[in-house]
Design brief:
Length: 261
């Protein structure tokens, strides 16, 4: 009874506080749930098991065999590999854009990295950023197993926020690097999509003649990519949304006049 007596006078205070800060409270709850989801998914998906299965069952040096083995693993185990639908959209975008320099944020065992590298031109290069050291190390080994050489890719173990300001140092010696990245794949923390896009533009890392940005939406909730879509929609002078799927959004950035989207 004493708890009820103490609580009743606080009800008006709680109501007023919620009316003023309800939006902030809801946003914090959403962030907490998103973080919990990512942590639980990471724990459920064993990167080492994925790597061991692919390493042991694929034909080394054969790109298609590596991808097929990833798919076989994903049929019976939790996997961070993108779905066949995402893969088809990704492949189409890479073949259409034909970028010489690609940035991947979020490596996830190396599946998307392999898909990207196999479609790049002979002089093409991939820079992939992965915050988890184990995932980065095992993903790099998968790229080597698939037959790619270190001259074709670079794996940076870092958060995207820390890596982006240093990327010019890593790609500065590349042919065409002054033009920046022709394609960016974001498949890391959705809450970093917008800050990282802004940072990439600020650091002049997006090719001014045209850069395609692909946002993976694993939860298929519009809220995970909605802030990015709202941002680019308000900057139609530089950005356009080329396509929106429930699982992926394709954005085009261009500072130079062009008739091609």
């Amino acid at each position: 009874m004493w708890l009820v007596a103490v609580s009743v006078p606080l009800i008006p205070v709680v109501i007023v506080a919620f009316s003023r800060y309800g939006g902030l409270f809801t946003a914090l709850c959403h962030r907490a749930l998103a973080w919990t989801h990512r942590v639980l998914l990471r724990r459920k998906v064993c990167v080492r098991s994925t790597h061991a299965y692919v390493f042991s069952n694929c034909t080394h040096g054969k790109v298609d065999s590596v991808l097929e083995t990833f798919d076989l693993y994903g049929n019976t185990h939790p996997s961070l590999s993108i779905s066949p639908q995402m893969s088809a959209v990704l492949d189409e975008a890479v073949m259409r854009v034909r970028p010489s320099l690609v940035l991947e944020l979020g490596m996830h065992c190396g599946y998307s990295s392999v898909r990207l590298l196999r479609l790049l031109p002979p002089a093409g290069r991939l820079v992939t950023v992965e915050v988890d050291p184990v995932t980065a190390e095992l993903g790099e080994e998968i790229l080597l197993v698939a037959g790619f050489k270190h001259s074709q890719f670079q794996v940076l173990t870092s958060s995207s926020a820390r890596a982006i300001p240093t990327l010019r140092l890593h790609v500065g010696a590349d042919k065409g690097a002054s033009e920046g990245f022709g394609l960016v794949l974001m498949d890391h923390d959705p809450q970093q999509y917008l800050p990282d896009l802004i940072a990439l533009e600020r650091e002049e890392l997006l090719s001014p003649s045209g850069c395609t940005i692909l946002l993976i939406n694993r939860t298929q909730r519009h809220g995970d990519v909605g802030d990015v879509v709202a941002h680019v929609s308000g900057r139609s002078d530089f950005y356009s949304v080329r396509s929106e799927h429930c699982f992926m959004v394709e954005i085009v950035y261009c500072r130079k006049p062009t008739n091609v989207l």
